[in-house]
Amino acid sequence: MKLNKMMAIASCALLACSLSSCRLALENAEAIPGEDKLIGVYITTEYLDLFDWQSYLSENRNDLDGGEIPSDGIQKKYEGKLYAQIKPKIKTSDAGVTKETNEYVFPGSPGFGFFATTQVIDGHLTHVVEGDPAFSDVNITSSHSDDKSSELLECTIYVSQAERLGPYFANPVYQSGDGQVYLTSGDGITASFEGSGNDDAGMTKTIDWEYEVNENGKSKSESVSIKIHFRSAVAPEKTAVLQMDGASDVISRLEFLSSALPESIALEKDAAYIVVESISPGSEISRDIYGTDDESIYAFILREDGILVKKGIQANWPE
Predict the structure, then answer these.
(1) Which of 24, 194, 235, 240 could form a disulfide with 255 if both were Cys (CB 3.0 to 4.6 A apart)?
(2) Where are the domains of the chain?
(3) CA 88 – CA 193 distance, rounded (Å)
């Protein structure tokens, strides 16, 4: 399963970017418009109880029916927010150009996130997309028309099959009109696939947001949908890289421990494609194929938290 490449464009087409940084300038923009917008998700392994029980009970004591909380939507008023702290962060491009951006962290709430904040960089409003390596196969699509705009963020979190899947809590992350970033408590999912032998086992969590405004007498809707796939996968013990020629004969075979993957691989002049084998401790093998258009190949490595991340290895094809 290959990691989708990400690109950034400013109009109605595929929007994607490197997880490390992506900037999309908003021309002629002077302020962050609209109401608080869903910009991402922050995954935790514990429930974040942010509900303001004291204020709720104080203001609604007479409305409680036999001690039960009425489900009339009034609870939303008391849903708490955990605001992110901003830390300056220096980004250096491949060309050696450095720029200062903001990093948003939630101290005291361990987890990992993916979000697309709007920041002022060099006097311009800029979308900065950043995510933890735990988010694999990331794809962001965006479409715009006169009366509607929508964004879809889809990604996968791979969990070692030897681990219990969850609980994981997908906490929605928002950005307000004045640029503040905060999260609200999210729902949790949990399952166990230990020993299931099914790499495709998993669950999906979707978070949706929609906002409608009137501009010059015309109604316009804006929506964001975040879809997170949690999948079980076998943590490989070794990774083998096979260089194949046009007749599908093996030119070269290199084998690495998953803890010692190289940063790049030099390919033979007759190499037509690459086969990457992920070899489990039980000698089970899964394979991915890469062609000459692929600048990188990917292999799983296991983190201490039981999550499998995809490490990119630069493929140096001969000129």
Answers:
(1) 240
(2) 14-233, 238-316
(3) 40
